[in-house]
Batch of 3 targets.
Target 1
Amino acid sequence: MVNLLINNLSRRLLLLASAGLVLILQACDGAGGGGGSQQKFKSGDEVLCIDEAKSYCVDWVNGDDETGTGRSDSPVKTISQAVNLANANEGNAKIYVKPGLYNEALGEQFPIILDNSISIEGLGDASEEVILSGSGEHTSTTSITRQVALVVNGSNSISNIQIENSVEVGVLLDSTKEDMVLDGNSVVKNSTGILIEGTGSPIISNNVLSDNGVGLSMFGSDDPRVYSNDINTNSIGIRVGVSSEINLGIKNNGGSNKILGNSQCDLLSESSKDISALGNIWDINEFEFSIQDVCGSGANIATSGSGTVNYQFIPSNTFPLFTSSITIEISSPAFGEKITGNQPNLLWTPSKQPLVVAAILNHPVVLKAGRIANPDKIVWLWHSGLGTANEGDVNFSQGVSIIGGDINKTEPPKALDSGRSYYWYIMAWDTEGKAVTHSSHHNYFTVP
């Protein structure tokens, strides 16, 4: 009977473009005037920026903080001075920085604080980088004093900068808004790479966060959107505080982050809130690991709070598995339910058919040519031929566990693993066992 029944069973890149992003060929102008003569700021024959209102040029070689106005023909030497000029001109400015090392020895004053919608764009490339390296004392809006390289407040964009602070924090997002963007930066060799403490929803995309103690850390009621980043070789890749949220990818819009090779763990959630982390690349396939209780030994995901992390595929539940069949309504575990315990009872509206199967898988159901194509992913099974329960109300103990993915080898049911999602469905056949007449939606639930 099992053989008869089973033989019949048989997600890019959203690039966020916003007016707050600074493009490499946008204007670069000082406080001294508007459209003007379209002066060019060059590196050899390469045009790096053009003078326009409220833009400032920084050149560590040819710039002068005493006499420079920030125009392309009169650049300043340090980012700090460009910020001073921008603030004196009521902010809402763009700063363009020529490749080089910007540190205290050059005259930078740390931390560099960006208020008033001031944005920074590095003009380097893979061979010549803009490196901001240093730290200074800063007391945040939460009254905590830290050593920080760059502090961001409000609506700003930071792009194409390498930020280093071996003392403590590379970038502190202290008070941000939804249009604050960190895009295309390298945040390396910091105790904490990026620290978020505000209440906004900043966008963090296309950055490299590596060789830090913690790559990305957040506290408070932030809800950053984190997409397409390379977060690797840190001690902890991402740390989410007790009351924080983070969007690492949602259904139909996966995160596309590479969160790999972080020595303690890739993601540590201490949060009381559930976190969505769909569509990312981890050290191993997302269906082959479970969430751990402790951040250590290179774990992919660890949780110490009451919230969970949704990191596995969420199926569509719009139609039944077999679209031409009658829908079997599932009651429990409901779609996306976080169950209690590791041995769920299964409840559904009976189909009243003689041949019925209920199956739990550790991988989403794959359908090909009208058949279940991955029965080797079934970990628990019940069918009406077992005679252990009435259809529609099946206790976990009344089914069987599958040994080694071979549905012909069964054993008494074993509890499901904690810290992951499972997928399940119901199917029923006609009296001859040839055609599927009823099926449920593609359901899933999570075992905390």
Note: The first strand starts at residue 40 and ends at 43.
Target 2
Amino acid sequence: MNLNDRIATAIHDKDLADVINAILASDVSELTAEQVDMLRRADTACNNIRDLCHQASGELCDQFDRAGIGYQIDEQELNASQIHQFSISLQDRNPTQAMSIARQLGYHPAATLSGAEWEIFWRSNDGTVLTRTDDVTMRLRLRWPQSNRTAWQAPFWPNLDDAALVPLPTSLWRLVFALRPIAILARRLGTPRRKTSIGEFLGTPVDLVPQLLAFADLKATDVVYDLGCGDGRILVEAARRYGCRAVGYELDKSLCRIASDLATRQGVDHLVEIHNVDAMAADVQRANVMFLFQPPETVARLVPKLLQQLPQGGRIIAHEQSRLECDPSASETRPLFSKDALTVAHLWKAEPRRDA
């Protein structure tokens, strides 16, 4: 196994820091200067990620302490030195106050819920994920004790589709039980369900974007697409650095506005298009370079389909920290590091079509 593959495997196995320390503590005379530099950059990234997680969790826990909220933090995860993530388990079954404090500090859930919808959600679940995005995305996994429900209650317990039928205030959340039969009938008659994204927004760390663009070997003649483009940082940087056209699809209207504003501020709004459309329904006929920063299962589902649609020589670039099982396998895989972020990038190239 070459060094790149070994480091990529360590990232997937979530033991990168230990593997780096073991390699650096051994005889490195057989490694090139470039390989040693990569290991040192990886070590720096791990240390800085751990520091960022401690800083973010400490800030939130201070606010919980002041509010008298009981909690327990996952120390093992906090010291994992690889992922911008920390987990807090609440002692109180009702997480509403903790959620409010987290939102004040810039953490946001994938979907904004209020009134009866929020009541149904927290009483039906035992946790959620919130994210705070700036140069990197910090994930907060907030957990709470699940409400006690008997087996006979489960079939009658309403879901978010039921609660969305008629917006109700928090004080009237129990009326959703009465509305559930009507909501079920409405869905059977074709009433659309709540729109859901193909994944939560996890912004690609800013310092990794130039490396990903270089990995894609972009040129001014390329047309770059990003499915689930979030705040548009990859598209805007591609247009700014290479002068290529860039098209993004994003279901979240607020993120679309942020992406459009970013393109305008960077002076590339004539090159960048942002569409408030479900990425799964995107028209990719003009694309010859495709970026995917989605959950591994979504990437594995999209890659074979997109390779059939891209012209010969078209490229798909995905990156993640979880093992990616995809058929076909990527033609190239490379670990990437910045001062406070890391990822594993994958590249697929479209072959000539059989019917061509």
Note: Residues 3-143 form one domain.
Target 3
Amino acid sequence: MARNSFGAPTASTKKRVAAASAAELDRIAERMLSAKTLREVFATKTKAAPKQR
């Protein structure tokens, strides 16, 4: 799926996936469904929801 959406992964991307925990792999898989770039897939911080007033 990732290759079809984002092209062939780099060596560093392969290492990151290989070293990921089960929880991290779940987050990566969820992000792949809506991400437009690999940078979005592997983002470590997510945007916080705007504060309600």
Note: Residues 2-41 form one domain.
